[in-house]
């Protein structure tokens, strides 16, 4: 069957004959040096599977309910026989590429699937498609989303590329999966959802259009119908009311309707077209339908025009997406670490990693510069350490702690009474003061230790995160480096633990300060000592206000009035001296932290070198082995870049034709 052959032998040609001849001439005009290269470019991009990279291609997608005549329409357009039978005939997407070859005397057909190319013929095409379908979807009645591509080069066919999808069925038959409807719906939605897709909705004239499942699906993704063209089949079986159905348009078919008569029985395709023309010319009801809405030649022309329009509209954007994605993938590949081929290359890269790690640590925990990680606060080292220091200074008691529930001076009274001896009555042994002091210092000894451990835990986490950030593509460095950091920070913990222990022991062994604040505070607090004894001796029950103590009740001290003065003196000495202890614990611990950070930054590099490289530079050789994840990512990027470059080459030579087409 040749659409572009003049049918002079058509005995029924009359007024409709001139319209049909005009349509066939238009088909001839559509095949020129502009349209075919564009279609070839899109077909080539589809063969390259560029859609797997998220780039959608202009596509005519054929959908329809089961037994709507979908395959028969495609047969009429292509002039070849497709698989037929009961149930779902199309079980995989069939990409049909029709290519008009005016010089051809023998049609050329081939199937492409599963990286195969299978040459076939008109006589065997149906069985070849069935065999390919079985290989992809199995020999039962299941379906698959893996497509088959059928290329038809034949004289007289319209230049079209269409995707035929499985017919929609709601009720599974024997051998079909229970979720057959959901599987088909998912495949159809995947193809018709992109805005680049034109939906060719095949409807049977024997049914109400609004009840068609294919209409419902297309309306979900194309509410206005601007991407939908309807083909009405079986018009000879239900001609009544068809004119109203295609003109009133209750289902929003934005690209209009085309009514067709498909081949019946053993008719040749040429005879079928003659019969179709006679039907729409002479039938009392069908002849009233406008001639621009009837016939396979009209459908072929409409599809050719629509296809040229959508390619012209979409191809520039497709080219831009290909170029953008190519640039992104090349950038990503360039950012990956070099694939090490020599020890010298590996050593150079390792030295660079160490330098980046040290630079980052100096900025984050020495200089307080956070431009490298502006939004990730866990990397803001100086700020986090300062927060821990502030919390530490708040936890340390600013005044000398007393036993819970202890009344004023009773702790000192108890110690004094237990220190009775034969000595001058107004003599205060130093051992009494040291006994109380040790008790107070021991009660807070855990606080500086906990603070140091918290800081070191944070530093360990920070160093490992920085090391991970700069050696993410070298797991060998990460694993060995992490172990080195654990050991290094572990040694720092031991050293800091000893340092804190020495600080506490120094506070326990002696009472000394050169700070003038001690005597100033002591003298200021002792001013009110004279208020205490008269209050006790005169049996006053009202509270008194003492400097440094506030308002207190002293009735409980009357039985111990002979040691009250000494007890008060002890408490004042402790209060005055406590400030010096806290100052030393804060300043000494903070200076130790800062010094430890400095040493850590300076020594970490040599620690990492010793652990990772080793004495025989074995670690450097290991660096030359890429991790499986990195190697896979590199290979993935190379394949994507190769695909995108090929795609870019495909479209490079056709953009000027798009411009001409727009004009």
Overall description:
With 663 residues, the protein is an alpha/beta fold. The chain is 55% helix and 9% strand. The chain contains 21 helices and eleven strands. The chain has helices at residues 15-30, 35-47, 70-78, 125-137, 180-192, 213-221, 242-248, 269-282, 296-335, 343-367, 381-395, 410-418, 430-444, 446-470, 475-509, 516-526, 529-537, 564-613, 618-623, 628-652, 655-662; strands at 59-64, 94-100, 108-113, 116-120, 148-154, 160-164, 197-204, 228-233, 257-259, 544-546, 550-552. It has a nine-stranded mixed sheet with strand order 4-3-5-2-6-1-7-8-9, sandwiched between helices. Strands 10-11 form a two-stranded antiparallel ribbon. Helix 16 packs antiparallel against helix 18. The chain is elongated. The two termini are 33 Å apart. Residues 1-31 have low confidence and may be disordered.
Gap from first CA to last CA: 33 Å
On the 0 to 100 scale, the average pLDDT is 85
Strand order of the largest sheet: 4-3-5-2-6-1-7-8-9
Structural class based on helices, strands and sheet pairing: alpha/beta
Largest sheet: 9 strands, mixed
- Total helical elements: 21
């Amino acid at each position: 069957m040749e659409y572009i052959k003049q049918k002079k032998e058509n005995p029924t040609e009359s007024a409709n004959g001139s319209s049909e001849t005009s349509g066939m001439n238009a088909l001839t005009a559509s095949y020129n040096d502009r349209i075919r290269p564009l279609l070839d470019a899109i077909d080539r991009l589809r063969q390259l599977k560029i859609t797997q990279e998220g780039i959608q291609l202009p596509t005519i997608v054929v959908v329809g309910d089961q037994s709507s005549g979908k395959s028969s329409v495609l047969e009429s357009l292509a002039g070849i026989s497709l698989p037929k039978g009961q149930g779902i005939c199309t079980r995989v997407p069939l990409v049909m590429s029709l290519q008009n070859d005016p010089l051809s005397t023998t049609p050329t057909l081939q199937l492409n699937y599963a990286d195969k190319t299978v040459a076939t013929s008109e006589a065997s095409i149906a069985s070849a498609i069935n065999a390919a379908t079985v290989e992809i979807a199995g020999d039962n009645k299941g379906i698959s989303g893996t497509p088959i591509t059928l290329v038809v080069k034949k004289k007289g066919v319209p230049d079209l590329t269409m995707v035929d999808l499985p017919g929609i069925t709601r009720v599974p038959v024997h051998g079909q999966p229970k979720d057959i409807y959901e599987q088909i719906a998912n495949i159809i939605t995947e193809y018709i959802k992109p805005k680049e897709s034109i939906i060719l909705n095949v409807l049977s004239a024997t049914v109400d259009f609004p009840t068609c499942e294919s209409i419902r699906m297309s309306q979900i993704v194309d509410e206005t119908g601007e991407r939908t063209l309807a083909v009405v089949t079986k018009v000879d079986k239900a001609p009544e009311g068809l004119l109203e159905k295609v003109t009133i348009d209750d289902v929003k078919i934005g690209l209009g309707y085309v009514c067709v008569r498909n081949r019946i029985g053993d008719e040749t395709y040429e005879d079928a077209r003659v019969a179709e023309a006679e039907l729409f010319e002479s039938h009392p009801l069908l002849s009233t339908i406008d001639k621009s809405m009837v016939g396979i030649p009209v459908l072929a022309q409409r599809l050719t025009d629509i296809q040229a329009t959508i390619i012209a509209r979409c191809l520039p954007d497709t080219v831009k997406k290909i170029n953008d994605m190519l640039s992104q993938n090349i950038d990503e590949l360039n950012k990956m670490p070099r694939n090490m081929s020599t020890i010298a290359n590996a050593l150079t890269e390792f030295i660079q990693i160490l330098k980046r790690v040290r630079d980052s640590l100096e900025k984050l925990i020495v200089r307080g510069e956070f431009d490298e990680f502006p939004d990730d606060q866990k990397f803001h080292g100086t700020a986090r350490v300062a927060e821990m220091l502030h919390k530490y200074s708040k936890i340390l008691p600013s005044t000398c702690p007393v036993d819970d529930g202890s009344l004023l001076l009773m702790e000192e009274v108890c110690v004094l009474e237990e220190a009775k001896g034969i000595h001058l009555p107004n003599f205060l042994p130093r051992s009494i003061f040291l006994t109380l002091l040790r008790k107070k210092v021991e009660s807070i000894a855990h606080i500086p230790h906990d603070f140091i451990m918290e800081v070191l835990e944070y530093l360990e986490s920070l160093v490992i995160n920085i090391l991970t950030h700069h050696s993410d593509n070298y797991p060998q460095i990460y694993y060995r480096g992490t172990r080195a950091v654990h050991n290094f920070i572990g040694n720092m913990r031991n050293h800091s633990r000893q340092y804190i222990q020495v600080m506490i022991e120094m506070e326990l062994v002696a009472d000394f300060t050169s700070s003038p604040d001690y005597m100033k505070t002591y003298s200021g607090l002792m001013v009110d000592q004279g208020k205490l004894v008269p209050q006790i001796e005169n049996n006053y029950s009202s509270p008194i206000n003492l400097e440094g103590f506030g308002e207190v009740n002293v009735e409980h001290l009357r039985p111990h009035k002979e040691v009250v003065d000494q007890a008060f003196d002890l408490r004042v000495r402790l209060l005055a001296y406590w400030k010096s202890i806290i100052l030393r614990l804060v300043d000494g611990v903070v200076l130790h932290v800062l010094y430890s950070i400095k040493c850590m930054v300076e020594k970490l590099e040599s620690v990492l070198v010793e652990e990772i490289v080793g004495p025989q530079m074995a670690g450097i050789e290991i660096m030359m082995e890429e991790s499986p994840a990195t190697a896979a990512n590199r290979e993935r990027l190379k394949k994507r870049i190769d695909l995108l470059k090929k795609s870019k080459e495909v479209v490079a030579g056709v953009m000027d034709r798009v411009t001409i087409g727009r004009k």
